[in-house]
Amino acid sequence: MGRFNPKGLFTGAFIPNALLKYPGISAGAKLLYARLLQYADDYGCAWPSQDTLANELGITKQQIINNLNQLEKYKLIEREKATGKDVLSHRTCRYYFLKHSLFSTSGSKAEFTSGSKAEFTSGSKVEFTSGSKVEFTSL
Questions:
Q1: Does domain 17-103 sit in CATH 3.30.750.200?
Q2: Per DSSP, what are the bridge partners of residue 78?
Q3: How many CB atoms are located within 10 Å of the residue 48 CB?
Q4: Distance of CA 62 to CAs 8, 54, 94, 104, Å?
Q5: Strand duo 45-46 + 77-80: pairing
Q6: How far apart are CA 128 and CA 106, in angstroms?
Q7: For residue range 69-127, what is the model confidence (pLDDT) as tens digits?
Q8: How far is CA 24 from CA 16, 45, 84, in A?
Q9: Please, which pLDDT band fits residue 6 given cuts at 50, 70 and 90?
Q10: Are the C-beta atoms of 15 and 56 separated by less than 8 Å?
Q11: 84's torsion region: left (phi>0), alpha (psi -120 to 50) or beta?
């Protein structure tokens, strides 16, 4: 069995570093959050069934419920239970992702506005660290 370079070979669940380092949340809840992120639609809503999540993560439905409760307790997600016709149609809960303060300083995001231009030449290395601020001004 030989070595290989995994970079760029896989797609999968992504746990944001800020959440990964957050001490109050269990590993199971962090993994569940990452899996829910994969289900998010264009409106930030995910709706996999608890059975589906349990099967995919290899844990029980009760563990999924416990992890969902933990994510709600820490205000990382909001759960909207099916009501009315959705219950009759056996629709699942909807999960929405909440803007949590732990994400406000994690990672970096460069924003470019109209008329801005960033140029990087061959061999350039740009690094952003947590809390970095980059400003672009017109020339």
A1: no
A2: 96
A3: 18
A4: 34, 9, 18, 31
A5: unpaired
A6: 11
A7: 999 999 999 999 877 776 666 578 999 999 999 888 545 454 444 554 555 555 555 55
A8: 15, 24, 35
A9: confident
A10: no
A11: left
The residues spanned by each domain of the chain are 17-103
Q: Are 15 and 34 in contact (CB under 8 A)?
A: yes
The full 3-state SS of the chain, as one line of letters, equals CCCCCCCCCCCCCCCCHHHHCCCCCCHHHHHHHHHHHHHCCCCCEECCCHHHHHHHHCCCHHHHHHHHHHHHHCCCEEEECCCCHHHHCCCCCEEEECCCHHHCCCCCCCCCCCCCCCCCCCCCCCCCCCCCCCCCCCC
Length of the chain: 139
pTM: 0.69
The amino acid at 109 = K
